[in-house]
């Protein structure tokens, strides 16, 4: 099971605090890790590789990198959602990542995406353009 950590406001972190938080959950994701740090937010991710092994690293970004997501769990209907999003004009970088479905789904449907999701999951999407956080 993967895990993610994060914090906002008065960041002032060069990655030390975020890395320490990520190390506290290393047992949740010993296979890989990733982090995103800017002046407003720090997001860290620990990965247990199960789905879409080559393409599932996080944090993951949309095409213009305005949205960043960290996610834990599984979206059971991600293939169905992916097909609908491709039909709506979205372009996917990964082959099968349910994480990327969250990004494009949020772009397409906003917060209305959540009732469409089937699975067990927790996620946070940060919008870099307006500094909003949705989870």
Q: What are the key terms here?
A:
single chain; globular; alpha+beta; 3 helices; four-stranded antiparallel sheet; 135 residues; three-stranded antiparallel sheet
Report on this structure.
- The structure is a single chain.
- The chain is an alpha+beta fold and 135 residues long.
- The protein has three helices and seven strands.
- The chain has helices at residues 16-24, 78-87, 98-109; strands at residues 3-8, 32-37, 41-47, 60-61, 67-75, 119-127, 132-134.
- The strands form two sheets. A four-stranded antiparallel sheet has the order 4-5-6-7, with helices on one face.
- Strand 4 and strand 5 form a beta hairpin.
- Helix 2 (78-87) crosses helix 3 (98-109).
- The protein is globular.
Summary of the model, kept short:
The chain is α+β, with helices and mostly antiparallel strands. It is built from three helices and seven strands.
Note the main sheet: 4 strands, antiparallel
Structural class: alpha+beta
Which band does the percent of strand residues land in? 25-35%
Radius of gyration: 14 Å
Summarize the helix and strand pattern as letters. EHEEEEHHEE
Contiguous uncertain segments of 5+ residues: none
Helix content: 10-25%
- Say how many strands there are: 7
- Count of individual helical segments: 3
Give the end-to-end Cα distance, rounded to a whole number of Å: 18 Å
What number is the mean pLDDT?
A: 87
| Strand neighbour order, sheet with most strands | 4-5-6-7
Shape: globular
Quaternary status of these chains?
single chain
């Amino acid at each position: 099971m993967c895990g993610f950590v994060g914090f906002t406001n008065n960041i002032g972190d060069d990655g030390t605090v975020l890395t320490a938080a990520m190390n506290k959950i290393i047992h949740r994701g010993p296979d890989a890790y990733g982090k995103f740090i800017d002046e407003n937010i720090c997001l860290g991710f620990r990965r247990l590789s199960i789905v879409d092994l080559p393409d599932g690293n996080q944090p993951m970004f949309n095409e213009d990198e305005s949205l960043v997501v960290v996610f834990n769990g599984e979206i059971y209907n991600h293939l169905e959602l992916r097909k609908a999003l491709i039909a709506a004009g979205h372009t996917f970088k990964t082959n099968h990542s349910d994480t990327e479905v969250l990004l494009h789904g949020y772009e397409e449907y906003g917060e209305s995406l959540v009732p469409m999701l089937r699975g067990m999951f927790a996620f946070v999407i940060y919008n870099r353009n307006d500094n909003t956080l949705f989870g």
